[in-house]
Specification:
434 residues, globular, mainly alpha
């Protein structure tokens, strides 16, 4: 079996299997109609209907994604097939580069070639075809999530290649690509803001081998990454008030917000920028949910995401998820709400999450050899929580749960799952004498 993974053609075989599996899984979605936020963001958005607006679109928040919608419109108008083809292609690219990223991380960590390819392949395959990804792939407007995630993966991929580069010019080129991917990811959707944190984590775990002196040697890169992070926070996140999913605040740019404020009466804003809600949908200025209630609710939401990754049933585009008012009391569940897990008091979910985090810290600081599966598991536990942090923290969002938010975070879960299954299988076969 290891002979297959040792083949120099394995990367191409992995790409073919991942892409083929995605096409089979999503082959019946290419004619799915525009839904919900697709209408104001794409169908009714006149700014997408002329390529002369591309420069203006690119200057907006999420402008990279909006520009791709404009290109879709130029190609086929409002024929949904073209939009679904691009969404599926973005997901296929994200899945394949996830495989390459994992493979290079494992090899950098000192893992064996065959093990690295095997675990990277099956982790990426889970990422490619797991039902949790349905919303990010088939809900057209959530190209925002998958495209930002693709650039997120590329930023990390280029960083790992750059850190391992043999020459300074090649290193500089790859680090420049890292910066470019970070910028493109953020302007696809703001969830990419945590790229510097995960790059720093990758460096600490696998490149510098937990030696801070190695990180210091890359200070110019980190200075630029964190300067960009500060700029994004000040120029985009602060005016928005938080990390909203789909609101006029994020999708149509700062000029529209200024016009709306100037006119004071939202319904009078021109048709293609009519607001889809009253007031802000995210941030401390909205009044639907307090920061404390949102934090308590997110303890249950994070555990629910994990449950969906384990058993993806009763999926929903618009959950009626109960908001927690107290840390010690179960929130009230509305009649007719269907959830996979009982909604415990948030303190129960918090204890479970703290236990998972404690395991990550234990695996990080225990003595380990090169290629240690435990160290890799620790890294991807942190990956899961860091990537979800923009939407699962104290900054409230009216919609407390969306499946697309776990799109990229799920790669960490699948990697941990595959490593555990591979380790268990190896022990079983070893005892059987195979």
């Amino acid at each position: 079996m290891d002979r297959i993974y040792s083949s120099r053609w394995f990367h191409f075989m992995a790409a073919a299997v991942i892409t083929g599996s995605i096409l089979i899984a999503y082959s019946n979605t290419f004619h799915a109609a525009f839904q919900f936020d697709d209408l104001p963001q794409i169908v009714e958005n006149d700014s997408l209907k002329s390529l002369s607006n591309l420069t203006t679109l690119l200057r907006q928040n999420r402008g990279v994604t909006m520009a791709t919608f404009a290109l879709n419109y130029a190609w086929g108008g409002l024929d949904v097939t073209g939009y679904h083809i691009v969404n599926t292609a973005v997901h296929a690219l994200a899945s394949f580069f996830a495989y390459l990223l994992l493979y290079n991380i494992f090899r950098t960590a000192g893992a064996k070639e065959a093990w690295s390819k095997r675990v990277a392949f099956f982790s990426a395959l889970f990422f490619a075809v797991h039902p949790i990804q349905t919303q990010s792939v088939t809900y057209i407007v959530q190209r925002m999530e998958s495209l930002a995630s693709l650039f997120y993966i590329l930023a990390l991929f280029f960083f790992v290649l750059g850190a391992n580069a043999a020459t300074a010019p090649k290193r500089l080129l790859l680090y420049s690509a890292t910066i470019a991917a970070y910028v493109l990811g953020f302007y696809s959707k703001e969830i990419a803001i945590t790229v510097p944190a995960v790059i720093l984590l990758t460096d600490f775990f696998f490149i510098s081998k937990k030696n801070l002196r190695g990180i210091v040697s890359r200070l110019p890169l980190y200075a630029l990454l964190f300067a960009l992070l500060g700029y994004f926070l000040f120029a985009t996140i602060r005016p928005l008030g938080g990390f909203s999913d789909l609101s006029r605040e994020s999708a149509v740019g700062a000029e529209v917000r200024k016009d709306a404020v100037a006119k004071e009466v939202h319904p009078k804003v021109q048709r293609d920028v009519q607001p889809v809600f009253e007031g802000p949908s995210a941030g401390f200025s909205q009044t639907a949910i307090t920061p404390k209630e949102y934090l308590y609710t997110q303890f249950n939401v994070l555990l629910y995401y994990i449950g969906l990754l384990i058993v993806p049933v009763n999926q929903n585009l618009d959950y009626d998820f109960p908001v927690a008012k107290s840390l010690n009391r179960s929130p009230a569940v509305n009649s007719g709400t269907v959830l996979n897990l009982p909604v415990w008091p948030p303190v129960v979910s918090l204890m479970i999450l703290l236990g998972i985090a404690a395991l990550a810290f234990y695996l990080l600081f225990r003595p380990s050899k090169d290629g240690s599966a435990g160290l890799i598991v620790s890294f991807f536990i942190f990956w899961f929580f860091i990537i979800l942090s923009p939407t699962s923290s104290v900054v409230p969002i009216i919609d407390v749960i969306y499946e697309h938010r776990v799109y990229l975070a799920s790669l960490g879960f699948f990697t941990v799952l595959v490593i555990c299954a591979d380790t268990l299988a190896a022990r079983v076969f070893s005892r059987m004498g195979a």
